[in-house]
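Format notes (please read before filing issues)

Several people have asked whether sequences and structure tokens are stored in separate files. They are not. Every record keeps both together, in the order shown below: the sequence lines, then the token lines. Line labels are part of the format and must not be stripped during preprocessing.
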Amino acid sequence: MESEQAFQALSVWTERVPDKGEDAEPFVAHHWETGQGLLAVFDGSGGSGAATAWQAPDGTPRTGAWVGARTARLATDCWFHEVATGGEPRGPESLHTYVQYFLSKAPQRRSKIGGTMRRQLPTTLAALYYRLHPDGRSIELQSLWAGDSRAYVLTPGSGLQVLTRDHTQESDALELLRTDPPMTNLACADRDFEVGSQQLSSYALPCVLVTATDGYFGYVHTPADFEYVLLRTLHEAHDQDEWADLLRREVQSYTADDASLALLALGYRSFTDLREQFAGRLAHVTDRYLRNRPPPLVRSPHPASEAASGPPPAAGSPASLSAGIRAWQDETWHAYRAAYETHLPPAPEEFA
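Then the structure lines:
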């Protein structure tokens, strides 16, 4: 089981504005001795963390969102190292402790401008921890998250299934695309926050694990579109490097935000095997959920991520969607939702 062919990993990281991106680079690691691994993404919240927090040695100013995302990545890296070597218990409480401590020690500048939306070093995180079972046919899975970045599992039989629940008051994935509500919880240095968690004790191999920031899934017509992006680019690629490049090109063609993604295919004999096993699923998704698909959305940046003066309504917003597109979205989402939400974590009590 533990061969190089059984582990096929890639990551994609793009900036909407060169050298101004606030997503940290994705994290992907596997500990061979214990069969444990982690993949994670981090999206600095530019709206609430837009003030400069640090200046690089070359004089480049960096926002609190930029610092927060990279600090959370470093904390997660150190946490996983301790988990993999047996020095730290797995779980949201220990990850929370690491992220909170690292953020408290990171450079930050106190702003005289207050408000309920302002945060020091604000960032989302979405991580997937896994551990191979001794039978070599299944894994333990644990999703960990804060904010609205997401973790998924993808299989030929069930398609894309979400493993996190956005920390927003709205929980319907299609309405989240249409309205982009503010987050009710995210990692930051100046306020308490929570790390959500869900554990699946045994998930059958082979499968594909995915974590992504909203630059990937927040600018499509429906949640099914994101699966289609993953599968169509897989079908067109000849190896994992080309798949990563196609994913980069694809997201840059439709997103209005920074975008990052970490992906790990577990248990497939080769890239050809991976691609062939998903061929049937791609055909199904194309026929069932992409029929009569409207042209790609051209959306303005999320107001929480980029400042703008009087922007037009986002193309996914109720003000700009035609009745025909909304009806098509509703129909597609109704058919896709049950499988997609198979492992959706239950709604918690409102985080105070």
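For reference, the curators noted about this record: Residues 4-109+118-306+313-340 form a domain with the Phosphatase 2c; domain 1 fold (CATH 3.60.40.10). The first strand starts at residue 7 and ends at 14.
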